[in-house]
Amino acid sequence: MPEGIFIIDWDEYEGGVISLKYPEDLEIPVNFVQLLQISHSFNPGIMNIKEDADNFNGLSLGNEELQKVTVLVLSKFEDAEDFKEILYLINDVVSKHSDDDLLEEILRLYRASQSVFRAREAVLTKLANEVNALKNTEIDIRQSFDWLIRHETNSPKKKILFILLRYGTLNLEDIENYSGFSYEDLIKYLEEMSKDQLIALKNEKYNSMIHYILD
Predict the structure, then answer these.
(1) What is the crossing angle of helices 156-167 and 183-195, to 10°?
(2) Is the pTM above the cut of 0.90?
(3) Given strand 15-22, what is the order of strands in its sheet?
(4) Dihedral (C-alpha) 84, 86, 89, 91: value to the nearest 10 degrees?
(5) Would you place residue 79 in the very low, low, confident or very high pLDDT band (cuts 50, 70, 90)?
(6) What is the C-alpha separation between 141 and 137, in angstroms, rounded?
(7) Which of 3, 44, 50, 81 satisfies CB 3.0 to 4.6 Å to 62 for a cystine?
């Protein structure tokens, strides 16, 4: 999310000078204003500036006609690509408004951008929470199947189904290892289950078919 904004004007005696800054206590690295002004005299387009030494991340856009540079200060790990459209809008405001009402117009747009990205962060947080909830549910289901596999002693076929539901598609050797059944008994169970359409064999791997059974 943007941490601040400032505009650099060109003064023929002093060079680059800050003509607008918000918030007032926004920290700008020493000599950064002159560096940006000079850089944009050669490249009036958009630039992403990162200075690890000054812990600075910003996006700047030069306005060649007005000899101004608009800089959006971002948090350290923010992706500058997300803010290019906003910076272009702010630059458009800079082009169309006089210095007298420029601050008010820029702050209106800047605050609107803050609201947009707060909403985006809220959506991402909600999605992250939902993903974590699904992961926890998956862990609970796997642990439940582990318990069922360990404690199923009455029905070998149920145990095989639990194993396939827990681990997914498996070959004969894997089922034998997970079930502990002898090879001869396992082959018999698998043949009976295939005949009853509880499982299916494809490419030498077995898969549960019970999710297709409706009755």
Answers:
(1) 80
(2) no
(3) 15-22, 2-11, 68-74, 56-63, 46-51
(4) -60
(5) confident
(6) 6
(7) 44
